Amino acid sequence: AEGDLKYRYLAPIHIRNIYPSTISVRGKTSVLVTGDFESVGTALCVWHNGKKVTEAVFSSGEQGFRCLSPPLGTTTGPVNVTLSFNGHVETNSYFTIEVVSEPQISAVHPPRAITKDNSTVTIFGDHFLVDATNPECVFLQGEERVARTPADIHSLSKLKCTLHQNLPLQREIQSVRIDAPQPSGEVQVLEI
Predict the structure, then answer these.
(1) Within 10 A of 68 (CB to CB), how many other CB atoms are there?
(2) Using CA atoms, how far apart are residues 46 and 79, in angstroms rounded to an integer?
(3) Which long-range contacts does 109-114 make (Cβ < 8 Å, 24+ apart)?
């Protein structure tokens, strides 16, 4: 037989680290996979022993691949992550990432605050992602996002948010006093 056959040898692929090391079951966390590899063809992040696959994009500035974590349903605990190139897993190297339940908020202290320089609120709950990339506190008024500030995550159950100075002021009515004649048995409604 005649002809040229091109063959490219790839150096062994070895995953060295994954950041963050903890993600939520809800997915959509940007994950950086670093190691000994080069950007060759189409890459995928393979999650949970091949049960989930997401696109991986090489980031030369970070010397690794970025991919979004997939929704993992109720799967919590350690999950293996590896890379696939051109549709094939060409390594037996993987890294384990910890999957935790959806973050839950149980309390905010103080419940009211004045927005001024460096005013903070402490949020208590469970499953906060301690090593999350660029965590934020998002302030909503109804369904509308009115501000966002960086979050300082202290532990799995505590984080602090600096209040944005331009938050819309919201006054709550604490009590209403109505001076009127003695009750006559009729129902009166006051809408505020």
Answers:
(1) 15
(2) 10
(3) 113/163
Q: Measure Cα distances from 30 to 12, 55, 172, 179 in Å.
A: 25, 11, 38, 59
Element at 150 (helix H, strand E): strand 144-155
Judged against a pLDDT cut of 50, whether residue 137 lies above it is answered with yes
The sign of the dihedral angle between the CA atoms of 48, 49, 51, 53 is positive
Cβ contact 56:65 at 8 Å: yes
> pLDDT by residue (tens digit) across 66-116?
999 999 888 888 998 888 877 777 666 788 888 888 888 898 888 877 777
pLDDT at 191: 44
- Distance, in Å, from the CA atom of 55 to the CA atom of 44, rounded to the nearest integer, reads 5
